[in-house]
Amino acid sequence: MSAPAGTARIIQGEGNFLTQFNDNAVVGLGQEREWKIRPAHTNNGDAIVITLKDDNSEEKCLTLDSNSDSDVINILVRPLESPPRPEQMWTIEDAIMQPRFPPIVHGRLQSLAKPGMSATIGGAVPLPRIFMNVAAVPHDDGDMDRFRWRMDYMSMSD
């Protein structure tokens, strides 16, 4: 499923908001951040890019660290390229959309570049204690809750 275009807070669990710290994607308690969800059409179907404006008004997006080939790949916040690279595109898998407006979408953020990997808390990046790193790891059917994210839309766009 492709998520609808709009502005959303992205949350894992209770109050773990997706944000950035030193160009790393992290979650932090009470660290609310607005993300733009935009469609990115590909030959393999619909995907999305997840962007934000940094403090310098530069548009950045969630990006797999292309310098890593391990089982745990850090997710970085890097400048959006045009067209976006596969490392900058995501799909929402096992998605459930709550029937309200604006919607809430629950699902797994899966990398278009590495389809067997999904975003979750993980990886080894030195961070202040209020943050936890976000990485793409191989998803398995055993513990799918750790891969579930909630996109709480605040507005929709065309």
What does this structure look like?
This is Ricin B lectin domain-containing protein. By secondary structure, this protein is mostly beta strands. The chain is 0% helix and 56% strand. The chain has strands at 6-12, 16-21, 24-29, 35-42, 45-53, 59-64, 73-79, 90-98, 104-111, 117-121, 131-138, 148-156. Strands 1-2-3-11-7-6-5-4 form an eight-stranded antiparallel barrel.
Integer-rounded radius of gyration: 14 Å
Helix content: under 10%
The major pleated sheet works out as:
8 strands, antiparallel, barrel
- Low-pLDDT parts are none
Which sequence of strands runs across the widest sheet? 1-2-3-11-7-6-5-4
The chain-level mean pLDDT equals 89
Taken in chain order, the helices and strands follow as EEEEEEEEEEEE
Write down the CATH class.
Mainly Beta
Distance between the termini: 17 Å
Tally of alpha and pi helices: 0
**Proportion of strand residues:** over 45%
Number of domains: 1
From the helix content, strand content and strand pairing, which structural class follows?
mainly beta
List how many beta strands DSSP finds.
12
| CATH-derived architecture | Trefoil
Q: What is the name of the CATH topology?
A: Trefoil (Acidic Fibroblast Growth Factor, subunit A)
Task: Characterize the overall form.
Answer: globular
